[in-house]
Amino acid sequence: MSMIGIDLGTTNSLVTYWDGKQASLIPNGLNKVMTPSIVGIDDSGAIIVGEVARQRLQTHSDKTLANFKRYMGSNKTFSLGKNKFRPEELSALVLKSLKADAEAFLNEEVTDAVISVPAYFSDAQRKATQAAGQLAGLNVKRLINEPTAAAIAYGMHEKKDDITFLVFDIGGGTFDVSILELFDGVMQVNASSGDNRLGGEDFVDVLIRAFAEHHNMKLDKLKGQQLANLRLSAENCKQALTSEMHSSMSIRVKKQNYDMSVSREQFNDFSADLLQRLRQPLERALNDADLHGDELDSIILVGGASRMPIIRSLASKMLGKIPSAHINPDEIVALGTAIQVGLIQNDETLKEIVLTDVSPYTLGIDIHNENDQGESGLLFHPIIERNSPVPISRSDLLYNASDNQSKIEMGIYQGEALYVRENIKLGTLKLKIPRGRAGSESIDVRFTYDINGLLEVEVIVTSTGKKERVVIEGNPGLLTQKEIEQRLKSLQGLKIHPREKLENSVLMARGERLYENALGEKRAYIAELLQLFEKTLNKQDLAEIKSLVNEITEIFDQLEQDSPLH
Ligand code: AMP
């Protein structure tokens, strides 16, 4: 029985454990610490997760799914073969694979987990993450905010006391900013802000749109496979522009090649709107923490997209400081989840450390009365203000607005806007009240925001003293407990690709991808290698297979280095 830490990312996921002294990363079946958050089905109909699925993203785009974390907390469904999956089920398949890696590595059953979520994840997105854990057979002991996890790992590493720092966390699909203070062993989040629909993938979209515009190409006319190729090419171009000043994109449609070269400067221009969107949460977090950029001791960049020069320079320009360079932006959140595991286990080494967090956004209600036709019900009424330390519980007394009113119905919202239509609706709360004159009946609405960032609402009708824990209804993005149990059963019935065959399958999928990209002699050579590999696999001589895998991997590495398309 043991507990693991998981960074469940949009693009990659990592699994960790606390070994009693320090946080450690757990390698997957391919001996890598990063597992692509990609799910697919192989030719036999078995579920594949991670690198094999990533390799098939281009060659089998209709049987592979990526970026589903962006839809957590929504009721979007994805088709994979005969099955339809919700985002939390796809996340559960990634979690199951990480759990299996941890069990193989630790040589014991894993039952519990700490999972990191973007700080700016909404209530529905958090509940969906918790459901994903449950569907993967994990008891989710804590949801920890990604920047907070990064901060605690950074704090342990620095061993300095009394520092104020900013975590700038931009992954594939989300952006979080947190300002923290470490003082006397207490790690306190002062302010947190972000945008849960902004990340590295948006910079890929920008390149795709520029490419389409350049060639006067209608994206909705492209086939799934062509679109997948274009996306891959844009992703490679974006990553290349991190280290080079120029790069290019290309796809082949109906035997014709389409190319476009992009300079870093052009890419920066294409991304102007996204950069503008990055500024706002930074300004808000600084404002809320009542700080100027130059009062920060350091800036920590987290998440794969923080490698982009344009993002680094935005952070240094806005904050007047060069970000810390010695941190691995891919691993720091995962290491923080392991420290949280240690904290939950009350580990001796960590007994001096206290971690506190805040709610990143305001939570409140609107009030719709039975006879209400006026405008007032559309206004936002905050109950818990953003950046309140969690856990927190706040209540407010609300009165019946009209005579003889028998029901109260109100929307629950998160956000900062005056009008609720501009905030995110979390659900609706409905409740019967005794009839009476307007203003004579009241209810006490209590919002409790727990340490996982999950909201609970409780209502007491003052005149009867009746207390109700309210289930927030009407959020299509959430599964009920009963639905979770049903889906758990159907997930258990799925065939999963065997872990020990991963390496061979990755090689085969990679070969198929290279074959599709190559032409002429190179193509024939790859076909020959793949046939030889298949023949050797059938002989089932493990030593011979292993040595051929190494040999072909080297050849593929060389071919990819020579290729303009990776
Ligand atoms: P994460 O969710 O933290 O794994 O971050 C994934 C995002 O980082 C994706 O959008 C990647 O395209 C992006 N990313 C990773 N490496 C680089 C790089 N070298 N340059 C630009 N973006 C990158």
Overview of the molecule:
- The strands form seven sheets. Strands 1, 2, 3, 4, 10 and 11 form a six-stranded mixed sheet that branches.
- The model has no long low-confidence stretch (mean pLDDT about 90).
- The chain contains 14 helices and 28 strands.
- Helices cover about 35% and strands about 30% of the residues.
- Bound molecules: adenosine monophosphate.
- Adenosine monophosphate binds next to helix 5 and helix 6.
- Adenosine monophosphate binds near residues 172, 200, 304 and 305.
List keywords for this structure.
566 residues, alpha+beta, Nucleotidyltransferase, domain 5, Substrate Binding Domain Of DNAk, Chain A, domain 1, 3 domains, 6-stranded mixed β-sheet, 14 helices, 28 strands, 28% strand, binds adenosine monophosphate
Helical percentage: 25-40%
Shape: globular
Chain-averaged pLDDT: 91
What ions, cofactors and ligands are bound? adenosine monophosphate
**Global Rg:** 26 Å
Q: Structural class of the secondary elements? A: alpha+beta
Quaternary organization: single chain
Distance between the termini: 41 Å
Assign the CATH superfamily of the largest domain: ATPase, nucleotide binding domain
Separate helix tally: 14
